[in-house]
Automatic annotation (TrEMBL):
GO terms for molecular function: carbohydrate derivative binding; glucose-6-phosphate isomerase activity; monosaccharide binding. PANTHER family: GLUCOSE-6-PHOSPHATE ISOMERASE. The gene is pgi. It comes from Zongyangia hominis. GO terms for cellular component: cytosol. This is Glucose-6-phosphate isomerase.
Length: 445
């Protein structure tokens, strides 16, 4: 099994009979999901994506990735939320958070359209000077403000640099198959397009063209990624909590939530996983956080954050539990040499691999935190590679859907996200929002 749940450190926090107690609800959540009878059942395409994905498009994704590798120094990936986090997370995890600075024969990849910061865009524009560029604009709705605005800027850059015809061969649009401004524009301009299936929501879309094209451009093996996800699809179907670690994870986090642990901290000891933490936060946060319910998903990277958030986790409000994602085999290792003078007194660390030190930090921390009243569980992952990542992505997606149904919410919508957008549009004077604008300006006085 690619992801194994170790619940040994939950002793004293969750009793064995609690898992038996929640089994009936788990059975119901499982049926609701697989029989497609629950809230949001229009958005279950991700459930069978690892076997059902469009093979013809998959081949086009690979071909486009090869073209981009051949003709571009830089790929700008424009998107936000589910149209951004998965690709970045996978690339940082599989390659490195320092990917752009590595010696490599694949293009640098920069992400844009995930904020409204002019300084960020200016920096990126200056990085692009004198370089050959391609752009992958990703937006399911095709109308999200942040990516649309960034696309306007980078499309203009490409058209000025290569002419309209040249730009056409360097712009790839990943969007809805039929609807939205982006689809219309792409058809009009003749951009190559990739589809985000109707029944796959943004935060569940990393294994569609949304994630696959940028991930392939970075030189990652997308066949292995899909194969790992398929393994999870096949393996995680038994509703028995004792036979399905994905469901056990969903059940345990729900048990903890019901006893007042309202914050889940996803913990990693690998900086390359930090963006996966961000992906996880959108997945669970947008899926569960509604109807005034839900666990608040947070994250930390250790040991970095042990020096900033460690105090709170050890000793602050007892509202949180930790889920540690732990890799059995590190991506690479480093032997610590002894030093004859031993001025720094660090010879006790020497003559061993650095991963051993990281491992002891993990063991010491889990003992300290559980002792301090923060429950911990560990998701053990084999290693850092495409197959394990595919499995882990599917594991989290399914755990998230089951968690949502256990909580009694629709895990596949995000109505709350519209509130800020409405206000922002009104304040910016978007046509149609005139009435609201007056009311808001009054409140801002
Ligand atoms: O892909 P898009 O339609 O541009 O959406 C991008 C993101 O923005 C929205 O506001 C939603 O909250 C997210 O669920 C979505 O992933």
């Amino acid at each position: 099994m690619a992801v194994t749940l170790n619940a040994n450190h939950l002793k004293g926090f969750v009793m064995d009979h609690e898992l038996c107690g929640i089994q009936a609800q788990l059975d119901a959540a499982h049926r609701t999901l697989h029989e497609k009878t629950g809230l949001g059942n229009d958005y279950l395409g991700w459930l069978t994506l690892p076997t059902d994905y469009d093979k013809e498009e998959f081949a086009r994704i690979k071909a486009a990735a090869e073209k981009i590798k051949g003709d571009s120094d830089i790929l700008i990936v424009i998107g936000i939320g589910g149209s951004y986090l998965g690709a970045r997370a996978a690339i940082e995890f599989l390659k490195s958070p320092l990917y752009n600075n590595l010696k490599k024969d694949t293009p640098d990849i920069y992400f844009a359209g995930n904020s409204i910061s002019p300084a960020y865009v200016n920096d990126l524009l200056s990085i692009c000077e004198g370089k050959d560029i391609s752009v992958n604009i990703i937006s399911k709705s095709g109308t999200t403000t942040e990516p649309a605005l960034a696309f306007r800027i980078f499309r203009d850059l490409l058209e000025k640099k290569y002419g309209k015809e040249g730009a056409k061969g360097r712009i790839y649009a990943t969007t809805d198959k039929a609807r939205g401004t982006l689809k219309e524009l792409s058809d009009k301009e003749g951009y190559e397009t990739f589809v985000i299936p109707d029944d796959v929501g943004g935060r569940f879309s990393v294994l569609t063209a949304v994630g696959l094209l940028p991930i392939a451009v970075a030189g990652c093996d997308i066949d292995a990624l899909m194969a790992g996800a398929k393994e999870a699809q096949d393996a995680l179907c038994d509703p028995d909590v004792e036979k399905n670690d994905c469901y056990k994870y969903a059940a345990l986090r729900n048990c903890l939530y019901r006893k007042g642990k309202a914050v889940e901290l996803l913990v990693t000891y690998e900086p390359c996983f930090t963006m996966m933490n961000e992906w996880f936060k959108q997945l669970f946060g947008e899926s569960e956080g509604k109807d005034h319910k839900g666990l608040f998903p947070a994250s930390v990277t250790f040991s970095t954050d042990l020096h900033s958030m460690g105090q709170f986790i050890q000793d602050g409000s007892r509202v949180l539990f930790e889920t540690v994602v732990k890799f059995k085999t590190p991506k690479s290792d480093l032997f610590i040499q002894p030093d004859a003078a031993n001025f720094d007194g660090l010879n006790f660390l020497s003559n061993q691999n650095m991963s051993v030190v990281n491992e002891k930090a993990f063991e010491g921390t889990i003992l300290a935190h559980t002792e301090g009243g923060a429950p911990n569980m560990v998701l053990e992952v084999g290693g850092v590679n495409e197959k394990e990542l595919g499995y882990l992505i599917y594991f989290f997606e399914k755990a998230c859907a089951i968690s949502g149904y256990l909580l009694g919410v629709n895990p596949f919508n995000q109505p709350g996200v519209e509130a800020y957008k409405k206000n922002m549009f009104a304040l910016l004077g978007k046509p149609g929002y005139e009435d609201l604008q007056g009311a808001l300006l009054e409140k801002l006085k």
